[in-house]
Amino acid sequence: MDILKGKVAVVTGSTSGIGLAYVRAFAGAGANIVLNGIGAPADVEKTRTAIENDFGVKAIYSPANMAEPIEIANMISFAERTFGSVDVLVNNAGIQHVSPIEDFPVEKWDAVIAINLSSAFHAIRAVTPGMKQRGWGRILTTASAHSQVASPFKSAYVAAKHGIVGLTRTVALELARSKITCNCISPGYVWTPLVEKQIPNTMKARNMDRDQVINDVLLAAQPTKEFVTVEQVASLALFLCSDDAAQITGANFSIDGGWTAA
């Protein structure tokens, strides 16, 4: 499938996990790629070259800090200078902090809001003029099941993800006549290396075996009792970038094993 052949996709937080699945799906559909995220330089370079070698596209890397508006704007400018356009933007970078509200560190609140919500605003603001000029664009943001429901001790994360839905809907309305769509995807628990690494510590802390941690802790809220895969999330994103999805905008797509159905 070459549905993105000749297009350029910027994906934040894309050196691993869901973000890396996005870029590999887009590259497989013919898009040139702008990677962004953290990681050892050698690992990032290995990821970048693998994308080029596997899919025959161009891939560049921006180390832009998603907490810094100027760096976000510079990342978009870098992509436009290098490739001539940014046609697909995926706001995927995110962090988490868990704490009771009365003890929630102010600096952690500010960081979560900056990276999980404000960075999407700054990136969308930067790509919109070029997308309008070219008369085509796809804007996606990774939200979460927590864009629709709440969990205790995650006030900043839940607030940010709810905010993403509002931002998405507003941008969709503003750009509805510009051939630019704006949507968000809300996964439940996705099987990633980050989730896998949490299991041994949780086993120890709760005196549980691996299966108990997976079923009774991580997947407690997902009726299917199965993890979402990064490939499933990326496949949905790729569809939303296609011409078949041209009339889908301002939507929030749940992919959460039934978590938010109740």
UniProtKB/TrEMBL annotation:
This is 3-hydroxybutyrate dehydrogenase. It comes from Bradyrhizobium jicamae. Pfam families: adh_short_C2. Keywords: Oxidoreductase. Belongs to the short-chain dehydrogenases/reductases (SDR) family. It is an enzyme of class 1 (oxidoreductase). GO terms for molecular function: 3-hydroxybutyrate dehydrogenase activity. The keyword DNA-binding does not apply. Its EC number is 1.1.1.30.
